[in-house]
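Deliverable D4.2, example record:
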Amino acid sequence: MYANSHNARAQVDISLAERSYPILIGAGLLGDASVYRQLPSASTALIVSNTSVAPLYAAQLKAVLQTRYSKVLLTTLPDGEVHKDWPTLQLIFDALLENGCDRKTVLFALGGGVVGDMTGFAAASYMRGVPFVQLPTTLLAQVDSSVGGKTAINHPLGKNMIGAFYQPQLVVCDLDVLKTLPARELSAGLAEVIKYGPIADLDFLAWIETNLDALLTQEPVAMAHAIQRSCEIKAWVVGQDEREQGLRAILNFGHTFGHAIESGLGYGEWLHGEGVGCGMVMAAHLSQRLGLIDMAFVERLTQLIKRAGLPVRGPVLSATDNAGRYLDLMRIDKKSEAGEIRFVLIDGPGKAIVRAAPDALVREVIDFCCL
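Output generated by the structure prediction step:
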């Protein structure tokens, strides 16, 4: 089932022809020189991190990269979703240009989802594409955002609306870096772990229910398995639909409602995983009202999300027409087509479907699920 040695390492491969790459999972990876041996050769490396993560891990990474690159630079971004924007992106380009970086320069994204998304977008754009490596330091980034090549920044009118599909050379999931995660960030990451169960693997959902306490205390064997299985499911989906023309959209389960919460409250008020956790509850209720699942499964999922320390009630975004505000925000979602909102719904436990739903029904769900 999974390795029971703390030092065991796992590898999950993303299969995309010439853009294929490995995800490495294990303890003590960040400072291990052998991890970076297969990367393209270059004279310069640029570590991109943020004000929270850089003081913890940048020196360790810099030391190991200096054995491979003659010049290792560091640029530190402000921390938080609110800074996932053009001015912050420019800081990466400033560092590249001021240091005369060429198109062989390798970028290293050392941080959570925001750092990974922005570094990837900078790598996709600088000189029309330079190599980059994902070194995710949050659980959410390790099981979701660092895998699959989606890179972006936010726009005031919508989350992740400006970006590119651009695959990394390597993803390194070091279990040890999760030890400095605040409890709230750990819970936010568990939302993206839980997500994989209802849409793709009921056995995994049952495993999470059984092992949730171990995950909340970061028991190494349980954490390694949760990350590996999440990455395996995502790798399977991305391998079939890299650019989200169809199947990959199921990975956005809970995200349509969740993104509305995030942008409606103002980025950073709720963590991404908190929005997704609550959004999964709302999507489950919508699935039930459409006759796709029974109420027992909605309750089962809700209880698990609650146990993980995540919100299961949506915030009020408008005092006058809360459901209308949610609908307006969801119409800007990337999955919308011609203004029609497309929801990822549970099409029977363990399967997902992307489809529209009548506004009246969506309103009922929002009214029922919000505080």
